[in-house]
Amino acid sequence: MSLSYSFKSAFQSLCREKWINILSIFTVASSLLIITLTAFFLYNIEIISNHLPERFSIVAYLKDNLSQEETQTIIDALKKRGEIVNLKYISKEDAINELQQALKDTSYILEGLSENPLSSSIEIRLKKDFVTSSSARQISEEIKKISGIDDVYYGEKIAEAIYLLKKSIQNISIIIFLTISTGVVFVTYSTVKILFYRRKEEIEIIKLLGATKGFIRMPFLIEGSAIGFFGGVLGIIGALLFYFAITYRLSMVIPMLKTLVFPLEILVLLPVTGILLGIIGSVIALGRLRL
Amino acid sequence: MIAFQNVSKFYENQTVLKNITFTVRKGEMAFLTGPSGAGKSTLLKLMYLAEWPDEGDIVIGDHHLQSLRMPEIPMLRRNIGVVFQDFKLINNLTVFGNVALALRIRGVSEKEIKNLVSEALKKVHLRHLSDSHPRSLSGGEQQRVVIARAIVAEPVVILADEPTGNLDPNTSADIIRLFEEINLQGTTILIATHNRELFRNTGRRVLKLDGGNLVAEEVG
Ligand SMILES: Nc1ncnc2c1ncn2[C@@H]1O[C@H](COP(=O)(O)OP(=O)(O)OP(=O)(O)O)[C@@H](O)[C@H]1O
Ligand SMILES: [Mg+2]
Q1: The CATH number of domain B1-79+157-220 is 3.30.360.10
Q2: C-alpha torsion angle, residues A55, A61, A67, A68 (rounded to 10)
Q3: Residues of chain A positioned with their CB less than 8 A from the CB of B84
Q4: What band does A43 get if pLDDT is binned at 50, 70 and 90?
Q5: Which residue in B104, B157, B158 has the most chain A C-beta atoms within 10 A of its own C-beta, making it the best mutation to test that interface?
């Protein structure tokens, strides 16, 4: 089969039916742009939320009057656990100093105390994957059983929120991607269907001359993927314009926007996605060809 | 070789071809005649499967149409060059493009296509109209484009449905001479026509069709 002919034929058809094609390229471009912008925001939310678990900690309060060896035994026991990234021992003296610093001018309220009322504690940071409310609870309960530990505190609500945020980011991206992709497939499907019917007579003639199904389908597949490809390229242009608009213009007003990151993978992913969805649409449009 | 064995074709309740049996030998040039509506075009259509026979078996070369599988249909059609009665030219292709199409579907290289197409156009005296579009041609010119397309890929069988219907007597004689030349190289040719001039005194076999029945076989 001569591919150069199929390409030429597809190109001629793209030019001949330019309005239909331009319209669907723009539709595909704006759909892909929506996917990109969603991906862009989710990507940035993801970057930010990836740092959240680092701030999450479990605090284990130690019983009073533990010897140095006893304290060390507890620290060693904790260090053996795989879920923990690092530990920080805070003696009761450190704690009161910290409190004094925090109170600053009002630190006189501590002056009446004859004895340090605070406990020594160990601040525990978990690996990202364990920052869910269920595993944080389980780990806290296990830590509580270690002898010498008085009580364990962790921010259940925070762990829950971080976990939910990440889960919903994933779900939202999947839903948006599926919905818009279906839309893109439908656009190329109807375009190719229309182009096919416009050339029905010609196709009947080519069949009688002895063309294979592949020969008949090829120009339409090329045309469908071209619509997807150009849609993707146009989508990139739109996404870049949008990105520069928010980072350069809006960041004067909202400085935080300056830290947004543009994922470079989009430059490749968008046209490739366009081509794939275009081919899927065309294949469905051509359906079962009868010779 | 072409062989029909008890072939019938029905359209709704109308019998268009009834129990047709005949053979055309490999390398033979024969005629098919009969009044308008006799079923000539339909009979030809059954051979390149524009229509399917309702009864009986047809053999074209190595292909038994009864047991033909889908992917073999293009191969069968490439063995047959058809001069369609209604031309079937593509209007947004040039004369060159129309003739070239028969080669492009066969995957012939562009360089070869150039040579073969201009040779075929020369044979039907249309080289000067290579870049014209079919719509701008006279009926006779269009008909000769169709003939060029049918012969350009050198098929083993040529089916010509009223190939001189739009031609003056001189050009008609030219075309018949062209078919005779091609036939001399071993191509099997069947020409459907109601113009008796084409086969008079040729000494070739003439199959007579009337009302869907094969009524006679004579020598022209
Ligand atoms: N698609 C169809 N549907 C219904 N009837 C058809 C169809 N095609 C042909 N016929 C009928 O079949 C009969 C034979 O038609 P056909 O075209 O084979 O005749 P023909 O011998 O080629 O005539 P002509 O010399 O005018 O070309 C006619 O009566 C025609 O009306
Ligand atoms: Mg006819």
Answers
A1: no
A2: 0
A3: 208
A4: confident
A5: B104
Domain ranges of chain B: 1-79+157-220, 88-154
* pLDDT score of A141: 86
Nearest to A210 among B88, B89, B105 (CB): B105
In chain B, which residues have their Cβ closer than 8 Å to the Cβ of A2? 104, 107-110
pLDDT in tens, B78-109: 999 999 999 999 998 999 999 999 999 999 99
Distance separating alpha carbons of residues A96 and A118, to the nearest angstrom:
7
Contact A208 B105 (CB under 8 A): no
Contacts of B106 in chain A (CB under 8 A): 210
Beta-carbon-side half-sphere exposure of residue A133 (alpha carbons within 13 Å)? 12
Token digits for B64?
Answer: 């038994």
Half-sphere CA count of B25, side-chain side, radius 13 A: 5
The counts of H helices and E strands in chain A are 9, 4
Domain ranges of chain A: 2-51+162-287, 57-154
- A192 burial via Cβ count (<10 Å: 0-12, 13-18, 19+): buried
The pLDDT tens digits of the residues spanning A126-141 come to: 888 887 778 888 888 8
pTM for this entry: 0.79
Task: Find the A154 Cα to ligand 1 centroid distance in Å.
Answer: 89
> Tens digits of per-residue pLDDT, A77-123?
888 888 888 888 888 888 888 888 888 777 777 777 777 888 888 98
| Min Cα separation B196/chain A (Å) | 28
| The predicted structure's pLDDT at residue B186 | 94
Q: How many Å apart are CA B165 and CA A147, to the nearest integer?
A: 109
Query: A206 touching B, CB under 8 A?
Result: yes
Cβ–ligand 1 distance for B35 under 6 Å, the answer no
Mutate to test the pocket of ligand 1, among B9, B12, B16, B209 (most ligand atoms within 8 A of CB): B16
Check B101 against A206: CB less than 8 A apart: yes
- CATH fold group of domain A57-154: Alpha-Beta Plaits (3.30.70)
pLDDT bin (cut points 50, 70, 90) of residue A22 is very high
Ligand in nearest proximity to the CA of B209: 1
What is the pLDDT, as a whole number, of residue A1? Answer: 55
